[in-house]
Amino acid sequence: MNALSNTDFKKISNNARPKRLGYYASWLWMMFVFLFLFVSAFVFLSGLYWTIRDGSIQEHWFSTVGIFVIDSVLIWMLKKDFRSRKLYQVTASMKNSGFFEPHKDCEHYDLARRTYIGFDFSTGIIGVASLYATSSIKRERLFFEAETVESWESVGRELIINLRNTGLTTITITAPNINKAYRDMEIICRTHKNRDENYQHLKSKLTDAGWFINSNY
């Protein structure tokens, strides 16, 4: 996979979008779906229980099956919505053999907030993506080497990464499995890095395009 090396950086806007009405409407939609699924699951199980207990199949089967069908459709829509998000397209465009190609177990997606962080243990590159601008992330795609990391900590579901860069001192990003993300950060900061000439060439291009954060102290 060499999507990144074939990218014309001058033709791509790498600015994260501001959070507007569409972002919050999508967030509220997902919260509604999750709440509905939770409540309807309880109703479904209750209906199934009374159907089995009373043997009144004709009385309860319609509502029970109806709820099951509605839940199935909502789950399918939610799954399709997650998979079709631009976030996956953005992260696919970040991948490149010998530069940034993390194992899927070392990739952390927060689909609700449209953010991503991945760790390539071979090259020591950390990749960050955010479709929407946050207080610490203004670019859609960012890369930096493990050596640029000065320190890190986890607070709740947030991974706070302090960088050796005066222009961008801190990146804060959420991860559903924060403990795994924290361990990945520990591993990448202490493992040996394999970097060849192609790596250095691509790093130079990304730096010129403003996609790469270098240590400057």
Summarize the structure.
With 217 residues, the chain is of the alpha+beta class. It has helices at residues 21-54, 57-83, 86-94, 178-188, 197-209, and strands at 107-110, 115-120, 125-130, 141-145, 149-155, 158-163, 170-174, 212-213. The strands form 2 sheets. A 5-stranded mixed beta sheet has the order 1-2-3-4-8, sandwiched between helices. Strands 5-6-7 form a 3-stranded antiparallel beta sheet, with helices on one face.
Query: How many domains in all?
Result: 2
- CATH class type of the largest domain: Mainly Beta
Spatial sequence of strands, sheet with the most strands? 1-2-3-4-8
Strand-residue fraction?
Answer: 15-25%
Shape: elongated
Topology order in helix (H) and strand (E) letters:
HHHEEEEEEEHHE
Main sheet specs: 5 strands, mixed
Q: Level of helix content? A: 40-55%
Radius of gyration: 22 Å
Describe this structure in words.
This protein has 217 residues and is α+β, with helices and mostly antiparallel strands. It has 2 domains: 21-83; 86-213, PH-domain like. Helix content is 43%, strand content 19%. It has 5 helices and 8 strands, in the order H-H-H-E-E-E-E-E-E-E-H-H-E. The protein has a 5-stranded mixed sheet with strand order 1-2-3-4-8, sandwiched between helices. Strand 2 (115-120) and strand 3 (125-130) form a beta hairpin. Helix 1 (21-54) packs antiparallel against helix 2. The chain is elongated. The model has no long low-confidence stretch (mean pLDDT 83). The chain crosses the membrane at residues 21-49, 61-78. This is ExcA. Keywords: Membrane, Transmembrane, Transmembrane helix.
